[in-house]
Amino acid sequence: MIHTRVCEILDIRYPILQGGMAWVATAELAAAVSNAGGLGIIGAGNAPGEVVEKEIIKARQLTGKPFGVNVMLLSPFVDQVMEVIIKHRVSVVTTGAGNPGKYIGDLKRISAKIIPVVPSVALAKRMQAMGVDALIAEGTEAGGHIGELTTMCLLPQVADAVEIPVIAAGGIADGRGLVAALALGAQGAQIGTRFVCSEECTVHQNYKNALINAKDRDAIVSGRSTGHPVRCLKNKLTREFEALEKAGMSLEEMEKLGAGKLREAVVEGNIATGSVMAGQITGMIKDIKTVDSIIEQLLKEAQEVLGKTNRILGR
Ligand code: TUI
Question: Is the distance from the beta carbon of residue 302 to the nearest atom of ligand 1 less than 6 Å?
Answer without folding.
Answer: no
